[in-house]
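This part of the workshop introduces the protein records we will be handling. Each record describes a single protein and holds just a pair of labelled lines. Instead of coordinates, the fold is spelled out as a row of discrete tokens. To make this concrete, we reproduce a full record directly below:
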Amino acid sequence: MLLRVVLLCCIVAIAMAANLKGSNNSDKKIMKKLKSQGYKPIGGGYWQKSFDYFFANGAHDPKLWIKIGDVAGNVKSLGAGYAADSFNGYFRGKKLDISGNLKVLKANGKLTWYAVDSFNAFYQGKQIETSGTLKALGFKYARDSFNSYYAGKEMKDSNGELKVTKCGYAYDSFNVYYAGKQLENANGKMKCVGGGYAEDSSGNKFYKGKEVDSSSISHFNKKEFKHIGGGYALSGADAFFDGKRFDAAGPGRRANGLQVLKGPKGKFSNWAKSALGNLYYKGERQTGLVGQDITLLGNGWAQAGHKTFYKGESTRVVGKLSVHGNGYATDQFNGFYKGEKINLMGQAGSFKLIGNDYAGTQLFAYYKGEKVQGCTKPMNVFGEGYLTCLGSVFYHGERVQGCVNPQKSLGHGYLQCQLSYVYKGEKVRHAQPTLNPLTVSKDGEVADRRGNKYVNGERE
């Protein structure tokens, strides 16, 4: 029987795809810049420049990429971190010892981290011992003619044919598994309910591999148990959040008719409301809010009646709350960063996002919620991490010494000032814009007029 390889889950697939193309405006700018430098993406994090090949390894700076040596012909990305040329195989830029053509296995139509050639099997680029042809099952499970595997390791206790559900549970003739671990009190075939919930053939319920906590387990009805979104689930008698019972949901009970509320972007939130008007956050009933309407403002903020909440915690605000994004919000007088109050010195009306995790008012600046000490009248951001204020420059919220009148960002962490250069907030020695200027190439190579090269701001 053919062995099947572990399914690479959607999140992993997206993470791999992030090396191929950007998913927001910032990534698109980076892609455009790399292409202007002569780099061509060939998929899965692999790049080509002329006759050279690289693996980006999640980095934006080509100087940090892995260069692939001794390439035989064109390199082709196979997906899931694997690649091959005419004779060699690679995983995340590192050469594999292969025999014959390398093939990445799929499960349920999606790539996994398992790969095989004519004689060998691999998991995340590491060779594994198998008996017969390998076949992917999904969620890191695989099976060959005799054995089952999880994350490339043999499952010693598995008996019989291993089957994997669409929600990550696996079962064989005698045992049930989640994330490769055997579950106690689980019997027979597993059925996915949704949102991480599942039930076995005996009607026992599980949430992400743990048995559902219920004081009335005998009241479960297979047809009535359902996931309703946001980690919430209902049975005929009980309500659950993340697998833990939090209230009674039978007729006339507090959680009866529970519905999960959606945020401004249409996604399920951690808030839920029952038919009797009880409000819950992550399964915890919010006393004093019975019958109140709640408005979800986004980024963790909500308002019900005259109360405002940040991720379920009551937060005192003055007047209308405005959510700006990037963790910031303001009321009539104060600012907030991820729920923590910021003293805006009475300038909430002029608050705005500046960029690079900076925000500011007419007179003051803030970096990740902390006031930037010494900054008066924030002005512009340069490159990644630099902020100019009246007469001062800051990098990641810290004052930069030796930079007067910043001129422009040179990229790759370098900033040109009127009389000096700085690299990631530190002054670059030996270089000066007028006498010995720096040149930063598109691929990040730095040199001064005298031919000296610089690495990480230091002259070699």
Q: What stands out?
A: Residues 1-24, 215-220 have pLDDT under 50 and may be disordered. The longest strand covers residues 110-116. Residues 14 and 23 are 10 Å apart (CA to CA).
